[in-house]
Amino acid sequence: MLESLHLKNVGPAPEMTLDLAPRLNLITGDNGLGKSFLLDVAWWALTRTWARGMAIPRPGAEAEIAFAFTTKSGSTHAYASRYQVARQRWAVKVRPNLNKPIPGLVLYAQVDGGFSVWDPARNYSPGMRGVPDDGAEAFFFTADEVWRGNTSCKGLIDDWALWQAGNSHSFKVLTSVLGALSPSPEERLVPGELRKLTVNDPQRYPTLRMPYGEDVAVVHASAGMRRILALAYLLTWAWQEHVENAKLRGQKPTREIVFL
Fold first, then answer.
1. What is the mean pLDDT of residues 204-216?
2. What are the two backbone dihedrals, phi and then psi, of residue 83, each rounded to the nearest 5 degrees?
3. What integer pLDDT is reported at residue 52 of this predicted model?
4. 3, pLDDT greater than 70
5. Where residue 134 falls among pLDDT bands split at 50, 70, 90?
6. pLDDT, position 53
7. Strand order in the sheet with 257-259
8. Disulfide check for 182: which of 5, 97, 155, 188 has CB 3.0–4.6 Å away?
9. Distance (Å, rounded) from C-alpha 46 to C-alpha 40?
10. CA separation for the pair 23, 114 (Å, rounded)
């Protein structure tokens, strides 16, 4: 879990410190105050990759991002990164005695509908010493790729349909996640039957069973429902991928998921 962030001469304020609770933290405020920026920095602190553009400090000022998080062993890893003007990057320290400090699976749901996923069983290269500079890039999905897929995944529509058609464990996990993310017991998100929508489109689309008994294709769901469906899919996909990646590396799956 991310324990703290300290920003100096970067972001919406000259200096800012956040001490975070061990399980759930809510950041609220008016538009334009930097809530999304804080999440971008939190993602970087946990993964050393930028989900969107790199944070640029105030011109002419010495800038710093300091952070601390709980490691897999339960100890605290803390580091203060200073912006290197000549190299146009944030410094990252490599410690030979530090072995994979990033605590677990990290997911970032961005405001534009995109998602970023960091998998410790994939994004570390063999022999890495604590920072992912020489490892594989994190997974980055645009809002459209979450639904239609890219080189990393088939996307919500295809994966859901495949999982459901095969009545796989992944579909059972997805169904459970949808139930947990449902707005209320009276508005439960329940998968309906797979459905072909047009004569010329061979795709079988996942559906949701609405309270009035009709199955509605997920592509026709409301904007709010689509946001929840995307989150449920990424949580399911990321976890199943992590379990498989950990198995290939001969490791146990992580016990922690950090969700931004």
1. 91
2. -75, 125
3. 82
4. yes
5. very low
6. 85
7. 139-141, 115-118, 105-109, 257-259
8. 188
9. 10
10. 24
Please report the pLDDT score of residue 94 as a whole number: 57
pLDDT band at 95 (very low <50, low <70, confident <90, very high): low
Question: Is it the case that residue 106 has pLDDT exceeding 90?
Answer: yes
Q: What residues does 79 pair with on adjacent strands?
A: 67
In the chain, how many H helices and how many E strands?
Answer: 5, 13
Distance of alpha carbon 186 from the chain centroid: 28
Taking the CA atoms of residue 238, residue 244, residue 249 and residue 255 in that order, the dihedral angle to the nearest 10 degrees is 60
- Of 133, 156, 160, nearest to 143 by C-alpha is 156
State the amino acid at position 100 in one-letter form.
K
In Å, how far are 173, 188, 229 from 180, measured between CA atoms? 11, 9, 12
DSSP sequence for 82-146: EEETTTTEE-----TT------SEEEEE-TTS-EEEE-TTTSSPTT--S-GGGSPPPEEE-HHHH
Residues 6+ apart with CB under 8 A from 62: 8, 9, 82, 83
Eight-class DSSP state of 12 = S
Dihedral of CA atoms 50, 53, 59, 60 in degrees, nearest 10, equals 30
- Cα-based angle 29, 115, 182 (whole degrees, multiple of 5): 75
pLDDT of amino acid 1 = 83
